[in-house]
Structure formats: structure tokens, C-alpha cells
Design goal:
Number of strands: 0
Number of domains: 1
Strand content: under 5%
Oligomer: single chain
Number of helices: 5
Shape: extended
Largest sheet: none
Length: 100
């Protein structure tokens, strides 16, 4: 019974993927994380990671211009997080945690 459920799940997933397979799956992940990032800032990190993964796939396929765009967006997300967390209080808390 469990194998039938697993088989059904795979059919549903791959029916959603379309012709591009993994690239389509990454597009779905990007769309999912974009929607959730509005209400959950942690999702922005997941979005950035997925953008990098998608950009790597595009880069391997030779589509360098879209890949660059996704990498730049991911870098922007990461830089925003670095700026948010790079302040004296946070550094002090991190140092205190290291010394415990």
C-alpha cells in the first residue's frame, strides 16, 4: 500500500514539473519562497539559496544572462541580512556566546 502512495506522489510531482524537470521544480520552489518571504523573513534565506541553485543550473545550460540576474538577487538578499545582523550589539552577543 505504501509503495502505491509513493508512486502516486511521484506521478503528481512529475506531472507538475513539465518538460524542464529539475528547472521547473526550482521555479516552483522560488515562487513558493517568494510568497512566504513576505510574512517570514527566514524564507528569504531559503529563497536566496534556491536562486543560487537555479542560477547554477542555468549557468551549466549556457544561459548566463538569467543566471547572473538570479545570482545578483540572491547576493542582494544575503547582503541585506548581513547589514541587519552586523551591528555592535549582535557582535557583542556573538562574542559572549563564543566565550561561554
Amino acid at each position: 500500500m505504501i509503495w502505491k502512495i509513493k508512486e502516486l506522489i511521484l506521478k503528481v510531482i512529475f506531472a507538475e514539473l513539465g518538460e524542464e524537470g529539475g528547472a521547473d521544480l526550482l521555479k516552483h520552489k522560488i515562487h513558493y519562497h517568494r510568497k512566504r518571504a513576505a510574512s517570514d523573513p527566514v524564507e528569504e534565506i531559503h529563497l536566496a539559496g534556491t536562486l543560487v541553485e537555479y542560477a547554477e543550473m542555468l549557468w551549466e545550460d549556457g544561459n548566463t544572462s538569467p543566471a547572473r540576474k538570479h545570482v545578483e538577487e540572491a547576493i542582494g538578499i544575503y547582503e541585506n541580512y548581513l547589514q541587519k545582523w552586523d551591528n555592535r550589539d549582535t557582535r557583542g552577543d556573538l562574542e559572549a556566546a563564543k566565550n561561554c
